[in-house]
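Progress against Task 2.4 (sequence-to-structure conversion) is shown through the following example record, which the project officer requested during the mid-term review.
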Amino acid sequence: MNMKIILDSNVLISAFNSKDSRHDLAIKLLNGIVDEEIWINQFILVEFSTVLLLRTKDLKLSEEVTRSLRSIDNVMESHFNGEEFGKILSFFYQQSSAKLSVPDCSLLYQAKKNRSGVLATFDKDLRQAAGKIGIKILPKRM
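Structure tokens generated for the chain above:
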């Protein structure tokens, strides 16, 4: 384990949905980071669980998949305190493009805070914002 990978929900959602246009890319990405330290924050975990429920209409499945994800040894959860949450919201309200969600801003904050972190996302706007502030991105090409 050399890298800290900060994982966006869209990678998980694409991996879980075999009909997703990025399914194969998500599986390849996850297989490539399986031995790394993977970080998921509470915004991303909630977003993933919610989207999974909305797409499958199966609450039990959403719960089981989310619980399984949380139990993987090299998957770490990060939680933000009140001050950090305020910084995330400030970043959200100060963005120039109005294209990033609060969960997106939480990933940027987390990656900047963990200077050695690499952000894994398929979100074009998030990738662009991360690149502008010097955050490494996976996959390198889309």
